[in-house]
Amino acid sequence: MATPLVSFCIPTFNRARYLQSLLESLVLQLQDFPYPFEIVVADNASPDRTGEVVQAFATQLPLRYLRHDSNIGCFPNVQFVMLQATGRYVVYLSDDDCVLGEPLARAVADMEADPGIAVTYAPWLLYDLVAGQSQGQFYEVPQDLRIPRGQHAQLLDHILKHHIFPEIHIARRDVMQRLMPRINEHAFYAFVQAADYLSQGDVLIRSEPFYVSITRYFADDHRSQAGSEEVEYAWDRYRGGLEYLMACAGTRISAEERAGFALRIQQMIAVRMSVAIRLRHAGHKDPVDTYTIAMRLRGMGYEHMSPVPMPQLAAQATLHFLLHDPLLNRGVEQLVCVGRFDTAATRYLQQHASVPVHFVDRPSQARSLDRALLFVSEAQQDFELDEALRATPHLQLVRERDLCARFGL
């Protein structure tokens, strides 16, 4: 095998059939690749047939297969496989995505012609293999953007202007080794690493994608995708990464510029939070958490950006809290609703309760109130527990007006 110029680094764990599909695509995409390359697979002690899959492609691709004796964790395996590269350029490749050979070769050619470029970033395409449909592109830039070494304010400006997420990249291996990039929970790694690369050389952000994120591989595809999931909760980490990047600008920006950047960072985070609300609501995630995110958005002054009206989120959070709060429902074996409730609330309680639900006009109409959660409607404002009810074992009382007040209704 010729000395590689490009190293494709693939961390993997227990996803043999996805890896097989990826390697099949690489056979096609890289068959005319103009540079010698290697493919490094770091297997995080997979219990499936990952090793067999890699071996099956040994005659078709220049593969190096490394297997851990035990699972070392996701992020450590990513960092490990990147450090095994021997090529001049290092490309991270998820085991369930793919690359486009020709655009990637053009990006490498530009870096070969210009040693001042420390790292090249690019947007990525989204594709549904099951439907055979393109699902667009994750961020766009109007043309290639070249940020000179040390110009962190310029990089931050581009990121905020175009909502760039500098994840897909080609790095010079010698620069990467000097930087020793790591993943920190307090600041989004892609913003941090882009800032660090810019301290070592120029950063190029290409407008042409060379990477494809596969949103659905198989009809029974139930894999988790870290990038898709983290958008629902990682906006504070995004903020941390952007603030890290701003900190790298140091005294080269004035107090007024810093205040302007801080506002723009807030605006970008608000956009990501609105996306989180949309995805969480569509995915039927915990409504109390979704409501809390929306309240944060309101507190930031961006309630208008919420894709779901606040009253709707609050109403869902109210009923979800009633049905699922562990303290309210401790030992509860039935829900007894006293009084009149609107149709939507009645339907929700019937569909989502994990215990039998009874609707009565008065508590005395219930067959039993033992181990019951008694939910009293707003219409029953004068309702009070009498001595007999107070003596009922394990009876919990919640008033609709108190619950609504808790969620601002």
Give the topology.
Blueprint: E1 6-12, H1 16-29, E2 37-43, H2 50-56, E3 63-67, H3 74-83, E4 89-92, E5 97-99, H4 101-113, E6 117-121, E7 124-128, E8 133-138, E9 145-147, H5 152-162, E10 169-172, H6 173-179, H7 189-198, E11 202-205, E12 211-216, H8 226-230, H9 235-249, H10 255-282, H11 287-299, H12 310-324, E13 334-338, H13 343-352, E14 357-360, E15 372-376, H14 387-390, E16 396-399, H15 400-406
Parallel strand pairs: 1-2, 1-4, 2-3, 6-11, 7-12, 13-14, 13-15, 15-16
Antiparallel strand pairs: 4-10, 5-12, 6-10, 7-8, 9-11
Report on this model:
The chain contains 15 helices and 16 strands. The model has no long low-confidence stretch (mean pLDDT 93). It is an alpha/beta fold and 409 residues long. Helix 5 (152-162) runs antiparallel to helix 9 (235-249), helix 7 (189-198) packs parallel to helix 9 (235-249) and helix 12 (310-324) crosses helix 13 (343-352). The chain folds into three domains: 6-223, Alpha-Beta Complex (Spore Coat Polysaccharide Biosynthesis Protein SpsA, Chain A), CATH 3.90.550.10; 227-316, no CATH class; 320-406. An eight-stranded mixed β-sheet has the order 3-2-1-4-10-6-11-9, with helices on both faces. The protein has a four-stranded mixed β-sheet with strand order 5-12-7-8. Helix content is 41%, strand content 19%.
